[in-house]
Amino acid sequence: MASIIKTVDLRKAYRVGPEVVVALDCINLEIAEGQVCCILGTSGSGKSTLLNQLAGLEKPTRGNVYILGKNISKMTEKQLAHFRQKSIGFVFQSYNLLPGMSAIENVAMPLTFRGVSKRKRTAIAKEMLKAVGLESRMKHTPAEMSGGQQQRVGIARAFAARPKVVFADEPTGNLDTKTTREIMELFLNFSRQQKITIVLVTHDRNLANYADRIVTIMDGRVVKDAANQSLFDVEKEEAARKAAWENDQLPPQEPAPGEPPAEEQKAANEGTEPSAVPEVNTAFGEGQENEKQTPAALEEK
């Protein structure tokens, strides 16, 4: 599978007074197209710094970041802004919705910078809001929505322009368990349907279980990089197996338990007796109806 993101000897250091603090030290990663990759780490591990580097929000001290084969570390701010508008989406922990805009206007906003007409971007925004279950909240402002609803708007906004990569920084940090599960299912659905790469940053191991790959970072270094069977895929497979088992237990051709056979039911509805099933003589050479003997045949006998 082709890589869509690649880092080469990535290093980021900050000067704090007389000291130099190394936030990232020699990070080499490749993330495949359509993969959901989780960067897992505790507070201060360097995971947010790595996200900022991958998204081009900060320049590295040394090394390079490539997205879609382009070295974003060497781009100017203007080039980066244009590249992000075209190829990258963001989902934030604090939602980052514009308070004076409705849900439709917030979702449509990134499309404005792409030069999409108002009519078309409004149609796309409505379609995305329906996809995240907010059909009845389209004209609501952020203040009129719950945290989970605001994050759904944020997800719809991130995926509305069909980016190649979506970066998500603790996207469910402010949400309860039930809403967290719903939000992650939305992420995975969009990723699987549109083959969009997702880079998810979190400290929550339960959230990391939804990823296809978990990269653990500690003290600015990658200490573990392992494939993972996404909880989203596991649950879908279990649901499919359960449905298949139920279908095997009750084939479509047979009546449900407690229901009479279709012929008896039809006869009952019509007020007539069901037709009798003819008995079959299984003896060798028999089983066919005897022909009526004619008078000529009797005379011959």
Summarize this entry quickly.
With 301 residues, this protein is of the alpha/beta class. The protein has helices at residues 47-54, 77-87, 103-112, 118-131, 147-160, 177-194, 205-208, 231-249, 262-270, 295-300; strands spanning 3-16, 19-32, 36-40, 62-67, 70-71, 88-92, 165-169, 197-202, 213-218, 221-227.
Structure in words:
There is one protein chain. With 301 residues, the chain is an alpha/beta fold. The protein has one domain (3-228): Rossmann fold (3-Layer(aba) Sandwich). Helix content is 38%, strand content 23%. The protein has helices at residues 47-54, 77-87, 103-112, 118-131, 147-160, 177-194, 205-208, 231-249, 262-270, 295-300, and strands at residues 3-16, 19-32, 36-40, 62-67, 70-71, 88-92, 165-169, 197-202, 213-218, 221-227. A 6-stranded mixed beta sheet has the order 6-7-8-3-9-10, with helices on both faces. Strands 2-1-4-5 form a 4-stranded antiparallel beta sheet. The longest helix is centred in the last third of the chain and has 19 residues, at 231-249. The chain is globular and about 60 Å long.
